[in-house]
Each structure stands twice: as C-alpha cells, then as structure tokens.
Amino acid sequence: MPQPEVAELEAVQARRELLKQSYLRAPEDRPPTTVRGIHHVAFICRDVEETIRFYQEFLGFPLVEIVENRDYRGSTHFFFDIGHGNLLGFFDFPGHDHPPIEETIGGVQHLALSVDAERFAAARKKLDDAGAEYLGPDRGVEDSLYLRDPNGVPLELYQERLGVFNGERILGADPS
Fold first, then answer.
1. What's the confidence (pLDDT) of residue 166?
2. What span, in angstroms and rounded, lies between the C-alpha atoms of 135 and 137?
3. How many C-beta neighbours within 10 Å does residue 39 have?
4. CA dist., res. 21 & res. 15, Å (int)
5. CA dihedral 113, 119, 125, 127 (to 10 degrees)
6. Which end of the chain has the lower number of beta carbons within 10 A, N or C?
7. What is the Cα–Cα distance from 172 to 85, expressed in whole angstroms?
C-alpha cells in the first residue's frame, strides 16, 4: 500500500496534531470509561481444530469453551483465556467462502497481546524452531513480534505491560 509522501505526509501529520490537541486529554482530565473492558474479541476461522492447536498448543492460551453459534446453525463458537478476564473468541461458518484477510476499513490491522520477557523469548524460540515467518526486532521494534495465525489474523506479541505504550503509561494503575 503506498504511503503518503512530502506534502500529503505533512498534511496527515498536521491533521494528527490537530486531533491530538482537540481531543486528547491529560490523564487527570479524562472521564472514566463507560465500559468494564473487553469481554471478548471474535474472529472467523477456517478450521476449528487447526485454530485450537495454534492458540492452545503453540501459543499456550487455554481453551475454555466450545458451543454452537446461537446465530448460525452448525457454526462453532469457541474461546481462549488470554488473561485478566479477557477472552479471544472464534467462529467457523461451514459452507462459507473465506477469502484471505485484507487490510481495509473494518478489518483488523493486528491484535496486540501483552507478554512478559520470558514468554516473549519462549514464543520467539518456538517460532524459530518451527520455521514460522514473523517480523519483529529486525524492523527496529525490539519489543514486538508480528505473526499471523493459521487464518491470517495478524498478531503482535508485545513485550510491554498492559496500559503502557512505547514505555509510557497511557492508562491508570498497572493491572498486573
């Protein structure tokens, strides 16, 4: 995808600064959020078993529920525990065509998952041992590994604490 250059880039950067000045509030001036948090994020998968093997057996996220999708007979809805009361969910839709993931409006750019240094190193070793493709420290981002699950869902394993971005706390108290 082509990136903005020169004048277009300057306009984008000026717009971002205007948005920041107009809407970003200092922590002490922010109202409390209106929700308790993310209950679950749900993606579509091609193959239930392949997805379970990747998330539970390869990444180590415990599978905690498998049920029939209440909105589509024959579809399986299943969940993994990703910590702090958060769930990662998937559906399959038997009989549906599933084109490859595309980075577009309404699509997922990536799902960033916080991991500690030990898990980060273990994940990187597992990826290396499996010969799996990923991006990460080679791009100058020392604390991130970018990979795709078997469905093409883009994931980031981010060696950063919850509520912190680029070393700076952007949310209140540390939940861990």
1. 87
2. 7
3. 12
4. 10
5. -20
6. N
7. 18
Q: What is the pLDDT of residues 8-24, one digit of tens each?
A: 999 999 999 999 999 99
The pLDDT value recorded for residue 176 is 61
Q: What are phi and psi of 9, to 5 degrees?
A: -65, -45
Q: Which residue matches tokens 């916080």? A: 114
Q: How far lies 146's CA from each of 46, 71, 162, in Å? A: 21, 32, 18
- Type of residue at 174: D
Cα–Cα distance measured from residue 148 to residue 146, given in angstroms and rounded to the nearest whole number: 7
CB atoms within 10 A of CB 98: 13
- At which residue do the structure tokens 């994940």 appear? 123
What is the pairing mode between strands 168-169 and 164-165?
antiparallel
In the structure encoding, which two tokens stand for residue 170, read together?
């952007």
Higher pLDDT, 103 or 34: 34
CB atoms within 10 A of CB 157: 21
Single-letter code of the amino acid located at 147: L
And the tokens for 112? 């960033």
The sheet with strand 154-158 has its strands ordered as 111-114, 154-158, 144-148
Q: What DSSP character marks residue 3?
A: P
